[in-house]
Amino acid sequence: MCPVPAAPPVPAPEPVDPATIATWTAHRADVAHRLAPALGTAPTQRRALAYLDGLLSGAERKNGWQLAEVNGDADPYGIQYLLNRARWSVAEARTALYGYVQDHLGDPQAVGIIDETAFLKKGAHSAGVARQYSGTAGRVENCQVGVFLAYAGARCYTLLDAELYLPQKSWTDQPARLQSVGLAPDTPFATKPQLAQRLLARAQAAGVALAWVVGDTVYGHSGKLRSWLEAQDQAYLLAVPAHERFLVGRYAYVVGRGVCGPGRGGLAAAECGTGQQGRTRVRLAVPGAGRGGRRGQGVLPVVPARLRTAAEVAGLSRVGPPGLRRARAGPDCRQSLAHRVGL
Question: What is the pTM of this model?
Answer without folding.
Answer: 0.75
